[in-house]
Design brief:
CATH architecture: Alpha-Beta Barrel
Number of strands: 8
Radius of gyration: 17 Å
Mean pLDDT: 96
CATH class: Alpha Beta
Structural class: alpha/beta
Bound molecules: pyridoxal-5'-phosphate
Number of helices: 9
CATH topology: TIM Barrel
Distance between the termini: 17 Å
């Protein structure tokens, strides 16, 4: 657990150096600690070292940790694929969903978000490599999806998320350009709300930050290798 605190500081330092090299302000990039497969104690250790935002991939696993850590003011992000039969429970327990890739999921989250909670923050996941097997919205369908999502209640469209193929660093710049394109062509999008580029992981956070990432999702470099 001592390691978690040290690793967290190392990751924050890497982010800071990457920002300085890209002539960006370090406060413009947030760290999302990806705690999938890690026990609640590891999340607690990261919290005690100053981390607030945590990312999970599997809904059932996340719910157990959210319940166990309910005494802490944590911000929970779903970053893994979301099936429609899980949207209600996600709308009730998460603050962010990064992996929205079709209108049906966004509609269900909007309807199912409890009225007493603030709007759910969502990002649209982009299928940048156009692989059939991967989740994510095709670029050709993105404009229509954005317009439709903007009309939904109880959710706020915060930005775009991408998981490129290993080594495909140009994907980060392509997604940053997509955000600019959307802002330029869809007047209802406000830059101050549509402000998130969820890009970069343990191995490629520097490339993502240099392309404009505002949120890096880092697991291994903080918590160690997963089983
Ligand atoms: C697991 C995962 C991460 C973190 O990956 P690391 O290489 O461990 O940093 C980030 N994003 C998503 C969507 C993931 O599934």
């Amino acid at each position: 657990m001592q390691d978690i605190s040290q690793h967290l500081q190392q990751v924050l330092r890497r982010m800071e150096v990457a920002c300085l090299q890209a002539a960006r302000r370090p406060v413009s990039v947030q760290l999302l600690a990806v705690s999938k497969t890690m026990p609640a104690d590891a999340v607690r250790a990261a919290y005690l070292a100053g981390q607030r935002d945590f990312g999970e991939n599997y809904v059932q696993e996340a719910l157990a940790k959210i319940a166990e850590l309910a005494d802490l003011p944590l911000v929970w992000h779903l970053i893994g694929p979301l099936q429609s039969n899980k949207t209600a429970i996600v709308a009730e327990h998460f603050h962010w969903v990064h992996s929205v890739d079709r209108l049906k999921i966004a509609q269900r989250l909007a309807v199912q978000r409890p009225a007493h909670l603030p709007p759910l923050n969502i990002c649209l996941q982009i299928n940048i490599d156009d692989e059939d097997s991967k989740s994510g919205c095709a670029i050709a369908e993105l404009d229509d999806l954005v317009v439709a999502v903007l009309a939904l209640p109880n959710i706020v469209l915060r930005g775009l998320m991408v998981i490129p193929k290993a080594g495909h660093h140009q994907a980060f710049a392509a997604v940053a350009e997509l955000r600019q394109h959307l802002l330029a062509t869809i007047p209802a999008l406000e830059p101050s709300r549509f402000d998130t580029l969820s890009m970069g992981m343990s191995d490629d956070m520097e490339a993502a930050i240099s392309a404009g990432s505002t949120m890096v999702r880092v697991g291994t470099a903080i918590f160690g290798k997963r089983q």
